[in-house]
Specification:
- By secondary structure, the chain is mainly alpha-helical.
- Helix content is 79%, strand content 0%.
- It is built from 15 helices and no strands.
- The chain starts with 6 loop residues before the first helix and ends with a helix.
- 36% of the residues are buried.
- GO terms for molecular function: endopeptidase activity; metallopeptidase activity.
- Keywords: Hydrolase, Membrane, Metalloprotease, Protease, Transmembrane, Transmembrane helix.
- The chain crosses the membrane at residues 7-29, 35-55, 67-92, 112-132, 153-180, 186-207, 228-252, 279-299.
- Residues 112-198 form the CAAX prenyl protease 2/Lysostaphin resistance protein A-like domain.
- This is CPBP family intramembrane metalloprotease.
Length: 302
């Protein structure tokens, strides 16, 4: 029963249930947006059923606490401020990996923005945070929050199952995990995640209205490297502002003193000597990794 309650089991379970929903629904439903929404609804039901079967206190486990109004305001600012930082890692990944998502998202957005905002911003913001920061991280942080944030973010990134998305999703996952601790509420990363995805979709939609802007993008390695170097100062500024905003949110919620203890070696020595990850966790990461390799190879052949 202890294994069933572990984050490693749930990671492995998530991979299989996600693909089951994908394959099963694709047989009967042709609309990819409807499939995406139904997958997320299914994941909500399965996740809550899992917590119930584990006899978890759902509000306590998921940290469903109120977020004060000033924190909401700062989180919305953060969703914009963090973009140059994640964009830098996206550009870095673009130097080595295929872009397997942008063209399909552009096509979907051009056919209808509202349904895509629901399926690709609202539902991921709620459901992915419930799973990755709610269920998985809440178990991993028992060892210590730093390991928990890094490991849950690693799985969050590779669970996108393509390497380009991993490059920025891993970084975003760290920010979402730290924000959860700063606000002590799962609603905080849910809001940031939904707002981040939403602004990405709106920017993509605007690009479809002005195709000359997207035509200006180039794909050469040298140009990518030049762009990367040019983008570095804004990424550093973005990182500094991100840290300051999260610190302000932590201060508003009385969590700043607690988070400062993470940097004390004396305090860290008192943390439990528990393992944050298991073989099942690494098996789940490995499955996602090999699928990402497979899709990358297919894309390069095509």
């Amino acid at each position: 029963m202890n294994y069933f309650k572990s984050s490693g089991f749930f990671c492995l379970f998530f991979v299989f249930i996600f693909w089951f929903f994908n394959i099963f629904l694709a047989i009967f439903i042709p609309d990819s947006q409807v499939i995406t929404i139904l997958i997320y609804l299914g994941l909500i039901v399965v996740s809550l059923a899992y917590l119930t079967l584990c006899r978890k206190d759902i509000p306590k486990t998921l940290r469903l606490h109120k977020v004060n109004l000033w924190s909401v305001f700062l989180i919305l600012i953060l969703s914009v401020v963090v973009r140059p930082l994640t964009g830098f890692f996206s550009l870095l990944g673009n130097m080595f990996f295929q872009d397997l998502v942008s063209s399909s998202i552009t096509q979907e957005v051009s056919s209808g923005l509202m349904i895509v905002l629901v399926s690709t911003a609202l539902f991921p913001g709620i459901v992915e945070e419930l799973i990755f920061r709610g269920i998985i991280y809440s178990d991993m942080r028992k060892a210590n929050p730093i390991k928990g944030i890094l490991l849950s973010s690693l799985f969050f990134g590779i669970a996108h199952m393509n390497f380009l998305q991993f490059c920025y999703a891993f970084v975003l996952g760290i920010i979402l995990g730290v924000l959860l601790e700063a606000a002590d509420s799962l609603f905080a990363p849910m809001l940031l995640h939904a707002a981040f995805n939403g602004t990405s979709l709106i920017l993509t939609y605007l690009m479809t209205l002005f195709p000359s802007i997207s035509d200006a993008a180039t794909t050469g390695t040298d140009i990518h490297l030049t762009t990367l170097i040019a983008f570095l100062p804004s990424a550093i500024i973005s990182l500094i502002l991100t840290v300051l905003l999260i610190a302000a949110i932590a201060h508003l919620n009385g969590r700043l003193g607690y988070m400062k203890t993470w940097f004390s070696s004396r305090i860290r020595k008192t943390w439990p000597k528990e393992k944050a990850a298991s073989i099942s966790y690494f098996a789940a990461v490995g499955i996602c990794f090999f699928f990402a390799v497979f899709t990358e190879l297919l894309a390069s052949i095509a």
